[in-house]
Amino acid sequence: MMNHQANETLIADEPKPPGYISEKCRFYDESGTRFILVKDVLVYTFELTDKTALRQVAVSIYRSKMATQIQISQAWNLTNKTIYNWVRSYRKGGMAALVDKTRPGAPRKVTDAVKKQIRRCRRQRMSLPEICQITNLSYGAVCTVLYTKPKGEVDLFEENQDDKANLQSSNQTADNDEPAELWQSDDKIITDTLADTEIDPLDRWQDRADARIGLLQDAKPIFADCPKVEFAGSLMAVALLELDPYLGAAVGLFGQFKAAFYGVRTVFMTMLLMALLRIKTNEQINRYNPQKLGRILGLDRAPCVRTQRRKLRRLAGYNKAVDFMEKTAKERMADGTTEEQTAILYVDGHIYGYSGKFKIGKTFSATRNRVVKGTTDYWVNLAGGAPLLCVTTEFNDGMTTALPKLLKLAQKLCKGKRITLVFDRGGASHELYEKLSKYADIITYRKNPQHIDISFFKKQKTLINGKEYEYAPYVREVALNVYGKKDGKRCKTGRTVSLREIIIQRQDGGQTAILTTRRDLEPEQVASILFSRWSQENYFKYMIAEYNLDHLCVYGTEELSPDIDHPNPDYCRLEKNLKKIKNSIAAILSKDLPALTDEDLDKAVKQFQKVHGGKKGEKLHQLSVRAEQIRDEMKETPKRITPLDCKKLKSEARLLTNAVKIAAWHIETGLVKILAKYYKKTDQDGRATIVAMIKSSGALRVKENELHVTLEPQATPQKTELLRHLCTDLNARQAKFPGSNMTLKFDVAA
Q1: Which of 55, 175, 225, 713 has the highest Cβ tally under 10 A?
Q2: Could you say which of 180, 209, 238 is where a domain stops?
């Protein structure tokens, strides 16, 4: 390969006068720095000693059609062969092929110009290894310059020159030693500067270069004509994105990255389309062609696994996932998701299992029917299973602990509405009923109800949730004793909570008891609301199967709060063993254990031993001795301990991905509702039909400010006709692709 280092020599000692490269582009040198202006707008700046920046800027000017190779070589006193070699190297290996790899023998002196170059690179958000490579200095030398206060450095824009006046006349301002626009990442700079430059939608090299030097926060979506694009049907979901607060809340809350090609909007759009296309993990992106995924994002290629995971970690670092979840939930409630004055909220916990090496808290999983390692999140759903929000717990808090916190959050979201909390037996607590009933209504199952005689029921056919019952529900008022703690023991407080009990006689002979504070509803209505809780269970099943809800998007753990405590496993084990012994004693005595206290049980044992003997008396004596030993051990064992050696799973990224999946579910539901106008079997396979349409391929055609999406026919003529109706309805909405002024138009190929 020809050595052309001699042709790259620039005379940095003698400042050159302002010179024109072409009619569009000119430059001037000042204090060892070169400034490139396009139509009197400052676009590029670099140190004259930085050969890497020199090559990259020269290639960028040529590729942007601002100047020819001959014009650049004549203006910068280089040979035509040098510029030709740089362009050829770029075409082979991109911008990385233009990095200067030469290493002079003697160490480079850290002059004032070099110090300015180091600080300028750092302001461009370059990493320290990159600065070391550009400046040809050691890591320690670069750190010394960055952490030393500059003394007596000359401001690059202090001297009065004609070029400074030209910059000010073109609305350019200076702040300290740099123009504000030089380090400000704004799409407007690129748009104004390169207005006459055609941007190739399939090769966004210029935008990537601008993002690299800090002139871009988020790449603008630009589409190209393409005869076949995979997953073009996903743009139908994008057409409904304006109706959901997901993207607006994300951009408004997280703002923008300071310099990025894949900005906040692009990252959240990518995660949403991944959920809709059933790309269930970031690692699965590798199974798809990034160029093809980029077509539906308006980019030359979609972000890779490494980029997507890095962006997700960066978003999680803001610690705004809870605010993001609450903001979207509040706007969905305000937009009329529940038009009635009563907000019925279904609350249930969901366990994320963990099988790693770290010590994580354990909890009982009803789906696995065993105790597992993991973390518990509590979900709040609306009627029909529509998800509202998800709340994490510090250390597998029980529902009795989580419900008061959820009620406070629900009061913020449902201002002016009467709240009704619906939950299962996990929240069974008389103290909790008393606390919640002061601020909201409750509907729940009664735990361990007493079986009543069938004569209390009136024989009358009753319809509840579409199911017919032979007997009408039996209704009565009950007063439940409220217990408290005194000296560490559970005791009665003398207070009671009055609730309405509704008992339903099932067809199998069993009975279902319901407790509620809603006395304004008919018994059948209360039972229907509670039995609809299975819509939340169905939501979990659907999200696990379709959206991979149980997947941990990031790996690692966090430290627990030092104030957290949890039940002592040793104490729980002793308590469980004592209960087994009491059951054995009660079986020998033929007594009902729940009706006996410890004192009554001891008296019954002594009386039995006086009257009876034999094997039963001997066994009873052994059980009594063992029970006394366990009681002594329980006195010395603390009931609750602080989990100093335990950790918790990272929650920020999990909440963010859950918020994305909630938005995908709502948008998918919106498409299903449109489909229901034309399809009678929507309840059976409406969602499956929508998913198939979203995954459909199609052609893209750009016409003025419109993006025409022509989708391929479906598997059957009936489904193709449904797709046409769906396209007609979406076209009437005049939806625009987020981040652009392109109106989406849909059609179906003949």
Answers
A1: 55
A2: 209
